[in-house]
Design a protein that fits this description.
Layout lengths: L2 E5 L5 H9 L8 E5 L5 H7 L1 E9 L2 E15 L2 E13 L8 H15 L4 E7 L19 E12 L12 E4 L3 H11 L5 E2 L3 H4 L3 E7 L2 E9 L6 E6 L2 H17 L10 E2 L1 E9 L4 H17 L4 E7 L13 E12 L4 H9 L10
Parallel strand pairs: 5-6, 14-15
Antiparallel strand pairs: 1-3, 2-12, 3-4, 4-5, 4-9, 6-16, 7-15, 7-16, 8-10, 10-11, 11-14, 12-13
Length: 351
């Protein structure tokens, strides 16, 4: 059977949505991403995107996407190409379709002056690892550690700080400058523009008129829904127990198997000082916003080396892990070393 590989067009939308519905992500938890009504919306939000498809007899049987993003490395502006959305229809798996899609994406990357290429996979899912091996794209893949996705359980009562006042903020130049100053310190930190704040809700904390902290929340449910397809018996038991107890403690209802997990994402969390009270004040505010929206969690993904994590102790949450992989098409060892030594960042509202 002839399989053709080409760039996707908007007319492929419905077939790509159907393909995504058949593509569970392997790992320590089974997960499917529902991408209706617009498959391309998520890739567009990530940055300058291209989606490529494999097609057999006019039916799309596989896809992969490449997105160029502006990031900071060592405080300098760089670009990284994020590879994602690798999906193959079940009846065509283990027949080289995924590998061929990878080849197609690599050809595009090499023709477009790429350097850093990034991939994240759920911990326990080894299938995408061969993407960077034995290819003409520079060094083999290098792991940059684990990202931990924290899902903080929504809470009815917002524990108001006596020290800090959380206020709503517009998308101001002051806010953009504050976010960028914070994420410039990260490896692969986002270059944040006004467009990236469109459709988000931002909260700030001031001290004597000066901006002290900011948090950006985004609801991705209109274009991305995480559907849990498989959990361990321990996790299933835990979710059942929580749903029986949560009404007593004013906590959000937990998701059920094969239903969309209602998440409010903490897209950005930036602060001028390392302060546990400040962190917990903002996280608890996000938890309350999730509860008020009838959502289960306020979620944020952070690298395992991020010092903010140590302030999460004692806050009710579930955690999941993914692995970051990176390579350099130009063998830019100084950039790879900077990413490895730094604290990598990835916006998990777009993963």
């Amino acid at each position: 059977m002839q399989i053709n590989y080409r760039e996707a067009t908007r007319s492929d939308n419905q077939q790509l949505i159907a393909l995504a519905a058949t593509s569970d992500m392997d790992g320590n938890i089974g997960l499917r991403i529902d991408r209706g009504p617009d498959f391309f919306r998520l890739a567009d939000l990530r940055g300058q995107s291209k989606v490529f498809v494999a097609e057999a007899e006019a039916v799309i049987i596989g896809c992969i996407s490449v997105v160029r993003q502006g990031v900071y490395v060592r405080g300098r502006e760089e670009t990284v190409d994020y590879v994602g959305d690798l999906k193959v229809a079940p009846s065509y798996r283990n027949q080289g379709v995924g590998r061929a899609l990878g080849d197609f994406a690599v050809e595009y990357l090499l023709a477009n002056d790429t350097d850093l290429v990034l991939l994240t996979v759920a911990k326990g899912n080894d299938k995408p690892f061969p993407f960077f091996t034995n290819r003409k794209i520079g060094t083999d893949m290098m792991t940059i550690g684990e990202f931990i996705v924290f899902q903080f359980i929504g809470k009815k009562k917002n524990k108001v700080s006596t020290k800090y006042l959380v206020e709503t903020s517009g998308e101001t130049e002051e806010l953009l400058t504050f976010y960028n100053r914070h994420y410039r310190k990260y490896a692969l930190g986002s270059q944040i523009t006004a467009a990236k704040l469109a459709g988000t809700t931002n909260f700030i904390v001031r001290h004597e008129g000066e901006l002290l902290a900011a948090m950006c929340l985004v609801d991705t449910m209109p274009y991305k829904r995480n559907v849990v397809t498989r959990v361990s018996w321990r996790m299933k038991l835990l979710l059942g127990v929580l749903n029986r107890l949560n009404p007593l403690f004013g906590l959000s209802r937990m998701p059920e198997l094969h239903q969309a997990v209602k998440l409010l994402y903490i897209k950005y969390l930036a602060m001028e000082q390392d302060d546990k009270d400040l962190v917990t004040t903002l996280i608890n505010h996000a938890r309350n916003q999730a509860y008020l929206s009838s959502y289960s969690f306020a979620s944020i993904g952070l690298h395992e080396k991020d010092p903010i994590i140590r302030h999460f102790a004692g806050i009710p949450k579930l955690t999941f892990r993914s692995v970051g992989l990176i390579t350099s098409a130009k063998n830019s060892k100084h950039l790879l070393e900077a990413v490895s030594r730094g604290i990598p960042f990835e916006d998990y509202s777009l993963v």
